[in-house]
Amino acid sequence: RIVYVNGDYLPEEEAKISIFDRGFLMSDGVYEVTSVLNGKLIDFPGHATRLERSLGELDMASPVSMDELLAIHRELVSRNEIEEGLVYLQITRGAPGDRDFAFPDPSTTPSTIVLFTQNKPGLADSPAAKTGTKVISIEDIRWGRRDIKTVQLLYPSMGKMMAKKAGCDDAWMVEDGFVTEGTSNNAYIVKGGKIITRELSTDILHGITRAAVLRLAAEAQMEVEERNFTIDEAKQADEAFTTSASAFVMPVVEIDGVTLGNGTPGTVARRLREIYLEESLKTAI
Ligand code: PLP
């Protein structure tokens, strides 16, 4: 696999990062994941815009322009012959040559930028989308700026393991009784045909797929309500689903052992997945 590191395209075995990189020592960095379908990038402008916002919130500058970033994405997709898969991008606050809590001077410590592809044939035709997924609920004990897409992913990673141990696919995180989001996706329920999802705030990541799906739902005359919902309300919903760049719209059929509807993906989730895949392919670049 050919990867990109600080201006160079290299075989992955030749890529090198300093042990003093603040991404490695302090999770001081941000990332984006963009999916690739038919060899093209899905929702790229949304991911680029969110990246700029994440960087700005952490007082970091991008080492490349957004146009260059698009060119790097395309180059990697092409060199690695990705038809279906993902492009992972990470920018960290560089390697100051020692460990210190204070941010280094950006004029002497340039940020580190890394991109790599993940080949995932069949990404759009996922079996999980046909059967639906099972989630458990766990307490949300992450930090308070979940709107910044940082590489600080230990708790979501632990949540995923708790779900696996329970024989489930993922965990929905709950704060004060209300669902925030999944470990790596935004969470939705459907009741009486109405799509309900938590409103945007610093409590959750502002999903790029979420924005697209809510816009498409409104265009399809589906009713959408952005409000907090409790985990108890979720267990009584007609259906549930999640959205993310890597799994698109994913139906949820069980929460904490409680089966939703008849235990198969709901009509709203299935329709949204179809519309999203169709529309995002049209605007893929
Ligand atoms: N919420 C969290 C915590 C995530 O990690 C992600 C994706 O990685 C999402 C939501 C979904 O965001 P997007 O649709 O931009 O992939």
From TrEMBL:
PANTHER family: AMINO-ACID AMINOTRANSFERASE, AMINODEOXYCHORISMATE LYASE
Pathway stated in the Swiss-Prot or TrEMBL entry: Amino-acid biosynthesis; L-isoleucine biosynthesis; L-isoleucine from 2-oxobutanoate: step 4/4; Amino-acid biosynthesis; L-valine biosynthesis; L-valine from pyruvate: step 4/4; Amino-acid biosynthesis; L-leucine biosynthesis; L-leucine from 3-methyl-2-oxobutanoate: step 4/4
Entry keywords, A to Z: Amino-acid biosynthesis, Aminotransferase, Branched-chain amino acid biosynthesis, Pyridoxal phosphate, Transferase
Group of enzyme by EC: transferase
Family label: Belongs to the class-IV pyridoxal-phosphate-dependent aminotransferase family.
Source domain of life: Bacteria
Endpoints of the signal sequence: none
Record's GO cellular component terms: cytosol
Record-linked SUPFAM superfamilies: D-aminoacid aminotransferase-like PLP-dependent enzymes (SSF56752)
Catalytic activity: L-isoleucine + 2-oxoglutarate = (S)-3-methyl-2-oxopentanoate + L-glutamate; L-valine + 2-oxoglutarate = 3-methyl-2-oxobutanoate + L-glutamate; L-leucine + 2-oxoglutarate = 4-methyl-2-oxopentanoate + L-glutamate
Organism (species): Pseudooceanicola sediminis
Needed co-factor(s): pyridoxal 5'-phosphate
Record protein name field: Probable branched-chain-amino-acid aminotransferase
